[in-house]
Amino acid sequence: MNDINEIQTIIILIIIIILIKHIELEELLIASYSIEQEEEDFNILPLNLLYSQHNKEINELKKLNKLISNYWFNEICLNMQAFEFKRHFRLTRSTFEWLCCEIIPLLRRNSNEPEVNRITNGFKITRNFPNVIGAINGSHIPIKAPHLFPVDYFNRKGFYSIVLQAVVDHKKKFLDICVGWPGSMHDSRILINSNLYNKFNNQVTTHLNNKYILGDGGYPNLSWLIVPYKDIGRGLTQEQTYFNRKHSQTRIKVEQAFGLLKGRW
C-alpha cells in the first residue's frame, strides 16, 4: 500500500512539474498552521515546504507562515529518519530530492519577446482582442480551518480557503500565480500585494509595454490591466456593451483554466 501511495504522489508531482513549465512562479504559500498541530495536519506534501522557501511577500501574516514552514523544514524534516519521512510524505527522501532538482530550474522562467508575440497573436486570432498578454482572476482553494487567524480564511462563499490568483494565456496555460492569501481578502488587495503588480508598476517588464492583461470588475483599471466598463446608473452605450462582451469572451480563458486545474483532482 505504501508503494502505491508513493507512486500516486509521484504522478501528481510530475503533473505539477509539467504545469510549472508554463508558469512564472512568484510564490506559493501554504495555509497557516501552528507548530503544535496534530500529526495529521502535518501530513502535507514536501513540495509545499519547497515552495514556502520561495515566498517573497512582506506581509506580517506571510512572515509568520514562512517562519513556521522554515521551522518544519530545517528543524523537523531534515532530521527525520528515512522511514519517518516516507510515512509523513508518502515518498522517499531521494525521490523528494530528485523532484526538487527537477522543479527548481522551472521556478524562474522569464518571458521573452517571441513568447509574448505568440500570446498576443493567439488572443487576437481567437477573439480579435489586440495586445492582450493574459487574463487574470482569483479562485478559492478549500482548506481546513487553520488554528491561526481562522476568521481571515473564511470567504464570502461560506467556507475556509486560500486564494489562487493566476494569469493564463489564450491556450489556458498558467503564466503567473500568486497563492496563499486568506480567503476573505479581496481580489484587488491580493493583486496590489503581488509581485506581478510590483513588476508592472516598477516597469521591470519593459518588454511588455503597450500590452495588457484582462481582468473582471473586481480589479482596478490600470495602464496594464483592462477591466470592463461599469454601469453607474446611466446605462452603457452600444460600443461599451460590445466591448464588455468581447472582453468577457476573451477573459473566460482563466475561468476555463481553473476548471481544468481543479478537474485533475
From TrEMBL:
<keyword id="KW-0378">Hydrolase</keyword>
<dbReference type="InterPro" id="IPR027806">
    <property type="entry name" value="HARBI1_dom"/>
</dbReference>
<comment type="similarity">
    <text>Belongs to the HARBI1 family.</text>
</comment>
<dbReference type="GO" id="GO:0004518">
    <property type="term" value="F:nuclease activity"/>
</dbReference>
<dbReference type="GO" id="GO:0016787">
    <property type="term" value="F:hydrolase activity"/>
</dbReference>
<keyword id="KW-0539">Nucleus</keyword>
<dbReference type="Pfam" id="PF13359">
    <property type="entry name" value="DDE_Tnp_4"/>
</dbReference>
<keyword id="KW-0540">Nuclease</keyword>
<feature type="domain" description="DDE Tnp4">
    <location>
        <begin position="137"/>
        <end position="265"/>
    </location>
</feature>
<dbReference type="GO" id="GO:0046872">
    <property type="term" value="F:metal ion binding"/>
</dbReference>
<keyword id="KW-0479">Metal-binding</keyword>
<protein>
    <recommendedName>
        <fullName>DDE Tnp4 domain-containing protein</fullName>
    </recommendedName>
</protein>
<dbReference type="InterPro" id="IPR045249">
    <property type="entry name" value="HARBI1-like"/>
</dbReference>
<dbReference type="GO" id="GO:0005634">
    <property type="term" value="C:nucleus"/>
</dbReference>
